[in-house]
Design goal:
208 residues, binds adenosine-5'-triphosphate, 8 strands, molybdenum cofactor biosynthesis, Molybdenum Cofactor Biosythetic Enzyme, Chain A, MPT_Adenylyltrnsfr/MoaC-Rel, nucleotidyltransferase, binds ligand MTE, globular, Molybdopterin adenylyltransferase
């Protein structure tokens, strides 16, 4: 049986981008989290992206409400948070994320800490998690990223050698297949930024 060729990259990704920062949300400094997330996704994805953004304070209920709204009402397939993953009292993003989770995806947190250790020894201070939120007719992957704006590309993209080949694989390599498995769009990436992986049986033929 031959698969029907599909036009690549036309399925729309609805993505929620949440910057969790007391100071950026209060206007003490300009938020760099959402722009960094948007820039990276624009660079990395071949699909059209619709982004729904939230800039909020480090408050557990506020974060959980934003996540629920982005998944249940805005129907995002993927939600990326940045900030509030450390050990300070006000860092509660992982707890707020777990509060809306139906299942945990521990591999993402493990891999992000491994990647980040290549950049900073304090990577082990990040308690970042990834979870699924599954409701009746929809599901989303929610991933916590650290608050340092540079941590966004570091963890999503990983670390490359001078010749451009991968030294440590970024976590986004596994995101397209995960999003597909939970019922979201078929995502494709620019291989020079991050090479996404899916088993051969799950790959779609490229249109000639
Ligand atoms: N949204 C942001 N925009 C710009 N820089 C940020 C942002 N969030 C964090 N940073 C920078 O990264 C550092 C670590 O992020 P973290 O999430 O721990 O913030 P924080 O120190 O708790 O402060 P705040 O919540 O007020 O941003 C911050 O101290 C700040 O220098
Ligand atoms: N890739 C990457 N990961 C990183 C960092 C970074 O600069 N780059 N900063 C670390 C630091 S200093 C802390 S305290 C933790 C938690 O950061 P957060 O509270 O901003 O989420 O993330 C860590 N992970």
């Amino acid at each position: 049986m031959s698969l029907t060729p599909v036009k690549i990259s036309q399925e729309v990704l609805r993505v929620g981008l949440v910057s969790v920062s007391d100071r950026a949300s209060a206007g003490v400094y300009a938020d760099q989290g959402i722009p960094a997330l948007q820039d990276w996704l624009t660079k990395a994805l071949l699909n059209p992206v619709v982004a729904v953004t939230r800039l909020i304070q480090d408050d557990k209920d506020t974060i959980s409400s934003a996540l629920k709204e982005l998944v249940d009402i805005e129907k995002c397939h993927l939600v990326l948070t940045t900030g509030g993953t450390g050990p300070s009292r006000r860092d509660v993003t992982p707890e707020a994320t777990q509060a809306v989770a139906t299942r945990e995806m521990p591999g993402f947190g493990e891999q992000m800490r491994q990647i980040s250790l290549q950049f900073v020894p304090t990577a082990i201070l990040s308690r970042q998690v990834a979870v699924l939120r599954e409701i009746d007719d929809h599901a989303a992957l929610i991933i916590n990223l650290p608050g340092q704006p540079k941590a966004i590309s570091e963890t999503l993209e990983g670390l490359k050698k001078e010749d451009g080949s991968s030294l440590v694989s970024g976590i986004f390599a596994a995101v397209p297949y995960c999003v597909e498995l939970i019922g979201g769009p078929y995502l494709e990436t620019h291989e020079a930024i991050v090479k996404s992986f899916r088993p051969k049986t799950a790959r779609r033929p490229i249109e000639a």
